[in-house]
Amino acid sequence: MKKILIVDDEPNIVMALEYTFKKNNFEVFIARDGQEALDILEVQLPDVIILDVMMPMVDGFATLEQIKKDERLQHCKVIFLSAKNKEKDIEKGLSLGANLYVVKPFSIKKLIEQVQDLIQ
């Protein structure tokens, strides 16, 4: 079973993604901010991380910088899922090492397909 970590502070998005990924046979972990995500990553090694940019405590960009420093997480695919849709934000996310940058509002169906493609 593939593992996914969803990092977002919007409850509606978290619930929708958790439900959909569980239905698609993923083991799902939830973090409400970057620090909580980093704590989970101490004990879990997901295949995919879906990461919001704007969050309390530690934002998505800073979280990804920490993820990229951890040898154990080199295999993880990271997808930014953010309302920050300016070209400079997207470029920053990709230059930090994200595999994809998806802008909100988004299609859950399309996101599932993108995740499946990444982990093939």
UniProtKB/TrEMBL annotation:
Cell membrane found in the keyword field: no
Pfam (any one): Response_reg
Keyword terms: Phosphoprotein
Ribonucleoprotein as UniProt keyword: no
Residue ranges of every copy of the Response regulatory domain listed in the record: 3-119
4-aspartylphosphate PTM positions: 52
Protein name, UniProt field: Response regulator
Source organism (scientific name): Flavobacterium algoritolerans
Taxonomy of the source species: Bacteria, Pseudomonadati, Bacteroidota, Flavobacteriia, Flavobacteriales
